[in-house]
Amino acid sequence: MATRKKTPAGTTPASKSASAETASDAPREIGERDRVTLQKITDLAFNALADVRRGKNPALSIPVRALSNVSFDQEAGLIRLGESRQSRNFFHIKQAKLFMQTFLIAEHCKKLIEAGATTSIRDIYYGAKHSVAGTKENTFEEQAESDPIIEDLEVTIDALREELHLRAENRGAMVGPMTIRDTGDTIDLRRMGSGGWSIPSIVEDNRIEFMKTEADYILFIEKGAVWARLNEDRFWQKNNCMLLHGSGMAARGTRRLLRRMHEELKLPLYVLTDNDPWGFYIYSVIKQGSINLAYESMRMAVPQARFLGLMSSDAERFNLQPNVSMALKDEDSARIEQLMRYDWFAAKRWQEELALMKKTQKKYELEALSSRGIRYITEEYIPQKLRGKRGDSWLD
Amino acid sequence: MTTEALIPDPEAEKPTGRRASAEAMGAKQRDISVSEFFTKNRHLLGFDNPAKALLTTIKEAVDNALDACEEAGILPTLDVTVEEVSDGRYRVRVEDNGPGIVKEQIPKIFAKLLYGSKFHRLRQSRGQQGIGISAAGMYGHLTTGRPVVVVSKIGKGRPAWRVEVRIDSRTNEPKQLNDKNDTVTWEKDHGTSVEIELMGLYRGGRTSVDAYLEQTVVANPHLELSYKPPKGPLVHFPRVSEHLPPEAQEIKPHPHGVELGMLIKILNEAGRRHVGQTLMEEFSRVTQPVADELCKRAGVDPNAVASKVDAVKIEAMHAAMVASNAALPPIKKFASKVARSDVNVREEVLEEGTGFSPTLADLVIRRAGMEPTLKAKLLTPMMVEKIYESLHGSQVKILPPPANCIVPVGEALVMEGLRRRFKGEFFTSHTRPPAVYRGNPFVVEAGVAFGGTLTRDDSADVLRFANRVPLLYQPRACAIHEAVLKVDWKSYGLQQRKGELPVGPLAIFVHLASVWVPFTSEAKEAVAHYDEVVREIRLALMECGRKLGAWVKAQQAERWETQRKSLFEKYIVELAASIHSITKVSEESVRNDFHHALPNHVRIAITVPEGTPPSAEAGVDAVPGEAPVDGEVVGAEVPSGVVARPSEPPPDMSDDGEGSPFEDVTPGNTRQLVLKMRPKSGRKL
C-alpha cells in the first residue's frame, strides 16, 4: 500500500503509563470479546508447541496480503482477501526470526489484554524490543519490522487490531454539527476551534458513540491544509456537513469512522483529493478498501462514496490556468499505469480520467482552486460539484 | 672445444682475404679441460651469483650426504652450519652420519669433476653426474683460495681422515694440500664432514638456504636435520619416519620411448650376441615372446647377430617398440584418406607412419605384397587393410617398467612431511603409478596442505622436488609449474586467474622420482617439459585437488550448517520465553522441546574425505579464531550464540538458496549432507 505523505514526525501521543507490565498487577474482569482473543493467542502457542514436540517444524499459516491474493468483488464494491496463505516456519533460515517476533508480539498483546490496557504500535515496538540473549542483535531493529508482524498476527488469528489492544497514532481531524461521546467524555464537534477533533485509531462503538447530529453528508478531504481553509470558512456550518481530513492516506481509525457514520447515520460520503494518482488511490481505499487490509474491507470501506475531484477534466471545467498545474514525475506516471490495471479502476470514466492525466502530463493540487479566488473552493467548486451529474461532475 | 674453420669461399685465395693459415689455426686447437670449461661457465652448474653459489654448495653437500646414507642403509642425521666469516665470506659445513669414504677416494670425490658412482647406472638418486660437490669446492677455491676440508671415518676404531683438497682446473685432477696421513679425533663411529669456504650471500625468500632446507625436510621424512643459520638460533627438525625409503633398484631402459639412436647403439655394441638375446638383456620388460614379436615386426631373425642388423630393420624394430605405446589411429581415417589420394602408396605410408624413413615405408609396403610406387587411390579396400595391418600390426604388449626402480616418498609420508612444515587444516597426497618418458620410468607424487596459518591472499606455494631434492630456481621454466597452471583449481573451490597459480591458503607439493630426471640444464633447476611428465603431474594434482575440493565444500557446508544451527539456538531462547509467557508451560521445558526437534531440521553429517586424518592426530594446533566445529547434537544446556566463527565471510543468508553448498555437491561424493525435513515452502536451503 502506497502511502503518499508521511505523517509529520510528531510525538507519540500514547502515554507510557499505559504500559502493560505496570498495569498487569491488578486483576481485572475480562470481557467476552477479550476472552476470545486471548484464547486465540494461547491456541497459537500451544499449536506450535505440539508441532515441535512431535519433531515437526512449527508453522504459522498466514493469509497472504498482496495483490496476488486479493480480488475485487464487483457486486459489493469491495476488495476481498483471497484464500492463499503462506507458511511461516521456525526451522527456516529466513523465517526463524519472523516466527520468534510473531510470538513476541503475541505475548505482549496477551499482556495488554489481561491488563485491560491499550498501547500504540510504537509502544509495543519498544516493549518487545530487547537484545537477543547473548548477542548484540535486537529482537526488532525498527518499528518498520514490528508493524507488519502485528498485521500478520491480526490476520493469522483473525483478530482486529483493537481486539489486540493496539492502536496507531491519532491521525486526521473532524468537525461538524454532531455531538459524540469519546470514552465517556461528551464532545461537541461544533466547538473544536481551528484544529478539530483528532481522530483516534480505535473508534469502535464501545469508545466512540454518536450522540446527536444535524449533518446531511460527510465531506472527506485529503489534506489538512485545505480542510483548515474550509473550517475557517465554517463550511460545515453553512452546508450542514461533517468535515474530515486524513493527513494524506486515511488511517484505519479515520476509515472506520467514515464507515460507521455512513452506515449508522446514513450519511452520504464525498471525497475531495488532489488531482494525481495518489489522490485517486486515497479515494479508492476509502471506497473499496486496500490490498494490505483487504481482510478488513467490509468493516472499513464505503462503496457508496463519491469522488468530488479534482478530476483531470476539471481543469477545463473550472478554467484552471496551465500555470497552476504541475508536471507529472516518473513515479506519478508509473503509478498511473498501475492504477489503470487495478480491477477497481476498470470503470470507463476512471480509465478516461487516468488516460487524460497521462496524456496532459499534468496534475493539480486542491490549492490550485485558490487561483480562482480565496473562497472559490467553498462557494463555487464544491456546491457546483454536488449539484452536478454522476460521471460528469462527480465519479463513483 | 674446436672451433669450426670457416669454409673458404672461391675468392679466398686472394691474400687479402686470408688472416691465418690452417696450420696456424691448428696450433691453437687443443683439448679444453672440463674443469676449465666449467670455470668459465659456472652458471651452468648453479654458481651464477653469490646467493645462488651459497645455496648450491649446501645443496650439493646435503644431496651427497643423503644419497650416501640411504645407499648404506643408515637413517640420515645431518648437521648444517653456515657462518659468516667476514663480510660476504661464508664457511659452510655439512656433516652426516653416513658410511664414510675410503681415504683414497676422498680427493677424487671432492676435487675431480665427472667422478662418481651414479652416472653409470640407471638408478634413482639425488646426484647424477658427479659434478656438484667438486664444482662447489672449485668455486670456493676460486673465490677465497681456500681448499675443501673433508673429514671422514668409515667405522668404529678406524681413523678419521682429514683431507684438504683442491681441484687443478686445467687437468681436472685433485691436489691434496695437507699431509696424506692427517687424522683428527672424531666421536662419531662413521660419517663425513665437508667444509667449504666461499664468497656468497645469505638472504631470505623463495630461493634461500632456509627454504631449501625446510623443503628438504618435507620430502625426506626420515631425515633428522639440525641447521645453524648465520643469524639466529639453531633450528632442529626431528625425524618423523623411522623407515628408510626402500633401496632403489638399478634398471635398464624400457622399450617404450627409447630413441632410435640409442637402439642402434645398443645393437651395434652387442658384439656377437643374437638380436633376441640382446633385446632381453638390454631392456627391461622384454621377455622371449616380446623379443620374438619385435623381431617379427622388423622382419629380423631373432637369432641373427645383433651388430649385423641393417639400419632399416632397426628402424622398423624401433617403430614397433614405440608404436606399442601409442593409441592406434582408426583404419577408416586411413582408408578415406587413401581413396582421395593423388600420390603413391609410399607417400601415404610415410605420412601415416610418423618418423618413418622411405626405406622403412617401402619395407612395410612390400611386406603387404605391393609396390611402393603404386598410385594410392587405386588400392582396393582389401589392399588398404593389408597395408594398414603391415603398418601398425597387432600391438606388441609390453609391461610397464618395474616400480621397484623408483622410490617415491609415499602418500602417508608426503602428508607427514607437509605437516612438519605447514600448520594447515587439511592435507592430502597422491602417488601415481609408474610411467615412462623416453624409456625412463618415473613416478609422480603430489600433495597439498590447505588452510590454517597458510597465507590466504597469496598465490599457492609450489614446492617442487626431483628425487627428493627441492627445486628452488626457475619455477616458470619447470614442467611442474606448467602442470600446476594446467589444473583447473577453480573447480576445487579455489580462486585462479587464467594462466596463473591458484590463490588461497594452499601449498602444493610435487615430487618427480625417476632414474633419470629430465632437467632443463645441468644446474638441475627445472624439469624439462615432456608431455608424459606434465600429464602425470597434472593427473596427480587433479587427484589431490578433488580431495581438497570435497573437503573445502564440506567445510563450507559444515560452517554454514553450524551458523544455521546457532541461528535457531539463539531464537529458541527468545521463542521459549514468549511461549512460556503465553502458555505458562515452563520455559526450560519449551526450550528442551525445541532443542530436541532441532536435529531433525539441521544435521551435520559429513564423511571426511579420504586422506584426511582427524586434525587431532595430525597434531595441528587449533587455529586461532577458528573454534572447533561441534558436530554433536546440541543439548539445551549449550549456550546460544556460541558460533564457530568462520574464517571466511559467511554465505549470504538472505540469498535464495543460490550458491548454497547443497547445490555444489557432486553425485558420488563421499560426503553426505542431509537436511531431513525441508521447510514447507519447499525452498532449498
Index terms:
heterodimer, A: alpha/beta, Arc Repressor Mutant, subunit A, Dna Topoisomerase Vi A Subunit, Chain: A, domain 2, 2 domains, six-stranded mixed sheet, 17 strands, disordered N terminus, B: 685 residues, alpha+beta, Heat Shock Protein 90, Helicase, Ruva Protein, domain 3, Ribosomal Protein S5, domain 2, flat
Brief summary:
Chain A has 396 residues and is an alpha/beta fold. Chain A has helices at 20-23, 32-53, 96-115, 121-128, 143-157, 224-232, 235-239, 252-264, 277-288, 297-300, 314-317, 330-341, 348-360, 376-387, and strands spanning 59-63, 70-73, 78-81, 85-89, 119-120, 166-167, 173-175, 178-182, 185-188, 197-198, 208-213, 217-221, 241-245, 269-272, 306-309, 326-327, 362-363. In chain B, strands 1, 2, 3, 4, 5, 6, 7, 8 and 9 form a nine-stranded mixed beta sheet that branches. In chain B, strands 10, 11, 12, 13, 14 and 17 form a six-stranded mixed beta sheet that branches.
Describe the protein's architecture and organization.
The complex is a heterodimer of chains A (396) and B (685). Chain A is of the alpha/beta class and 396 residues long. Chain A has 14 helices and 17 strands. Chain A has helices at residues 20-23, 32-53, 96-115, 121-128, 143-157, 224-232, 235-239, 252-264, 277-288, 297-300, 314-317, 330-341, 348-360, 376-387; strands at 59-63, 70-73, 78-81, 85-89, 119-120, 166-167, 173-175, 178-182, 185-188, 197-198, 208-213, 217-221, 241-245, 269-272, 306-309, 326-327, 362-363. In chain A, the strands form six sheets. In chain A, strands 10-7-13-12-14-15 form a six-stranded mixed beta sheet, with helices on both faces. Chain A has a three-stranded antiparallel beta sheet with strand order 9-8-11, with no helix packed on it. A two-stranded antiparallel ribbon of chain A has the order 1-4. In chain A, a hairpin with a 2-residue loop joins strand 8 (178-182) and strand 9. The longest helix of chain A has 22 residues, at 32-53. Chain A is globular. Mean pLDDT of chain A is 86; it is low at 1-26. Chain B has 685 residues and is α+β, with helices and mostly antiparallel strands. Chain B has four domains: 39-237, Histidine kinase-like ATPase, C-terminal domain (Heat Shock Protein 90, 2-Layer Sandwich); 260-392, Helicase, Ruva Protein, domain 3; 404-546, Ribosomal Protein S5, domain 2; 549-664, no CATH class. Helix content of chain B is 35%, strand content 14%. In chain B, the strands form three sheets. In chain B, strands 1, 2, 3, 4, 5, 6, 7, 8 and 9 form a nine-stranded mixed beta sheet that branches. In chain B, strands 10, 11, 12, 13, 14 and 17 form a six-stranded mixed beta sheet that branches. In chain B, strands 15-16 form a two-stranded antiparallel ribbon. In chain B, helix 3 (50-72) packs antiparallel against helix 5 and helix 12 (345-352) packs across helix 13 (358-367). The longest helix of chain B has 53 residues, at 531-583. Chain B is flat. At the A-B interface, helix 2, strand 4 and helix 3 of A face helix 17 and helix 18 of B.
